[in-house]
Amino acid sequence: MTARPKPSPLFLGIDTGGTYTDAVLWSEAGGPSGKVLAKAKALTTRHDLAVGISGAVDAVLQKAGTDPTAIKLVSMSTTLATNALVEGQGGRVALVMIGFAEGDLARDGLKAALGTDPVVFCPGGHDVHGNAAKLDLSGLEAALPEWEKSVSGFAVCAYFATRNPAHELSARNLIRDVTGLPVTASHELSAKLGGPRRALTTLLNARLISMIDRLVAATEGFLAARNIAAPLMVVRGDGALVSAAFARQRPIETILSGPAASLVGARHMTGLDDAVVSDIGGTTTDVAVLDKGRPRLDPEGATVGGFRTMVEAVAMRTFGLGGDSEVALEDGVLNPKILLGPRRLVPLALAGMIHGEAVASELERQLRAPNPGRMDGRLAVRTGVPERLAAGLTGAEAKLYELIGAVPQALDRLLTSNAQNATLNRLVSRGLVHVAGFTPSDAAHVLGRQANWDAAAARLGAALLARWRDGRGQFIAASPEAISERVLTALTRLSAEVILETAFAEDGLDGAATVAHALVQRAVDAHPGIARLSVALDRPVIGLGASAPLHYAGLAELVGNRCVVPEDTDVANALGAVVGQVRVSAEARVSQPKEGLFRVASGESVRDFNDEAAAIAAAEKDVRAIAAGRAKDAGTDSAEIEIASEFRVSTVEGQRMFIEAHVVAIASGRPRIAV
């Protein structure tokens, strides 16, 4: 009797985006790239991300008709850490600075990041060779009984801890013994020099621990309730996967997790190792570069919420350009151009679908007017947030907010002065009010290229926009269809500009935006001139996002290379979350404090050798062991380890003089799966 073939394991990928949470069920069977068995979306529930996750995952399981117990690996990318830093959220933590002066808080934005959280300065720290100053933790010890009641965790940073972490370890052990609260030590997160920025990174990490812990716990509870007994992985900001337990300790490394996952997904779906990846959503377009199969990382560390961290993350440029971008016209010129973004509006087609006749009747009234008005096609509606979030409004804001209801109201009836327009914008920025207006999504509905909302409302908005007049007094378009074509053409063209701007910036060119605009203008328009210009990328573009097939259809001729839009482009992030690899590193430094003495600083140990070769061999052995241990903690049992060494030497009178060596081990492998 022939044995039945063992079924291929199933993998579940989850991405929590700003608007939607995506889920995808994937199998390694079905060709070199595997096969997407089912995909689904649910609205992201930011008050409790597990709700949105459960909605998307349940929909995927229902579509696939799959037994949940067949899932052997779950992996997710999340915007939680990124959003928290942008919005200034996180737990209250205490910062412990060892060997630093109070003036160091003024560097690298550390004081602004600390805010009103407590800090203590303790004597101690080390020099560049790891030699210790005298440590005195009495100030910390005196503060702990009070702080234990008022903070959620601690961040510890010591002077030159990357060369000798002994003083950070002493402080960490003291805090844990007295309080039992989570402690982040700076040497655990980065091996780079630059104390204040390392302290900033450590502080932000400590703030995020409880938040990521709640997300992981909620997700694990959801999986257990559905009998999914599979390891849970999380995407880091550099695109690598790590175990949920690893992410709980180092949540700062999950910033830019979503964009990194999209790059991994893009490479997997296309097989392209070198490409420019452009991900267009409703509000923004994110552009990054793939090199040799891996995302380019920001060499200075990721910047999120205005803070430059020491976290290795994808070098992503974000532009206020998307399907829901505000459409406006250039002022004061004979032939006005279509302007898009950066503000997001609620598309009229979406508002019409939700509110029906209330939207259509106002747009029809404006069309019956003999002349166009400057507020035509714009409506305001409350967002529906709890009333308590409207606390603290000024008198003017409260008065206008009272007039705006749950049914959209036309701005030409609502606003009576320019000052009220500024007041409305403040209500929008507070998240209390949405403005609805014509967007590229509406243009797509007018032309029949999108059909999920109310096309009639979109057409009324297009008709209002088309009857605006140029500098000669002529209508700017002959029909709703004509203006809609112009809007979509403008979006494709601006997409080319932001892609080229990213390419120029990656090449180190100043004024990248100006150069990109000028080249597109001359090359695409065949602009007459003595110099004939053309522009071409050296690699193809991968278009991601649900609307990429529409908006990137004409992109290839603008960027001088092909544009690839994969079949499952709408769930690239979720797919990237599940097809990635675990990748961790370990570093060691070998210095020469005095002639003939070679000091190895690796992990949490510092050792001296009398021979350079012996010191280098010890450093390589250390980083190999540390990387292997970290890889296991991060979720893989099959890591391959590569070691690279970089030497700083000088030549004096023909003799080689050793200065320093930097030894790095990188361990990578596929995550372990449930048996």
Characterization of this structure:
By secondary structure, the chain is α/β, with parallel strands linked by helices. Helix content is 37%, strand content 24%. It is built from 21 helices and 29 strands. It has a six-stranded mixed β-sheet, with helices on both faces. Strand 9 and strand 10 (241-243) form a beta hairpin. Helix 4 (138-147) packs parallel to helix 5 (166-179), helix 9 crosses helix 15 (455-466) and helix 11 (395-403) crosses helix 13. The longest helix has 31 residues, at 195-225. The model has no long low-confidence stretch (mean pLDDT 88).
Compact description:
The chain is an alpha/beta fold and 675 residues long. The chain contains 21 helices and 29 strands. The protein is globular, with a radius of gyration of 28 Å.
Largest sheet: 6 strands, mixed
Widest β-sheet, arrangement of strands:
3-2-1-4-9-10
* Unreliable residue stretches: none
What share of the residues does DSSP label as strand, in percent?
Answer: 15-25%
* Overall pLDDT score: 88
Number of helices: 21
How far apart are the first and last residues' alpha carbons, in Å?
25 Å
